[in-house]
Amino acid sequence: MEARKEGIQAIIKALRNLNHDDSEIKSAIMEQYSLTEEKADKYLQSS
User: Fold this and answer.
1) Verdict on whether the full-model pTM lies above 0.90
2) DSSP 13-35
């Protein structure tokens, strides 16, 4: 579970470094990791 969290946080960081906005990142992690909107928001806020 920790590896998954670290992977999601790494993706968020990488996409932010490539100047993607949070709405795009949110959609990407929701699709890739089958996250609810609420869980995706939590990852974005903690990264």
Assistant:
1) no
2) HHHHHTT--HHHHHHHHHHHHT-
